[in-house]
Amino acid sequence: MQMILGKTALVTGSTSGIGLAIARAFAAQGANVVINGLGAAEDIEEERLGIEHEFGVKSIYCAADLGSPAAIANMIAEAEEAFGSVDVLVNNAGVQHVAPLEEFPPEKWDSIIAINLSAAFHTIRAVAPGMKRRNWGRIVNTASAHALVASPFKSAYVAAKHGIAGLTKTAALEFARDRITVNAIAPGYVWTPLVERQIPATMEARHMSREEVVHDVLLEAQPTKQFVTSEQVAALAVFLASEDASSITGAILAMDGGWTAH
Ligand code: NAD
Question: In whole angstroms, what is the distance from residue 234 CA to residue 240 CA?
Answer without folding.
Answer: 10
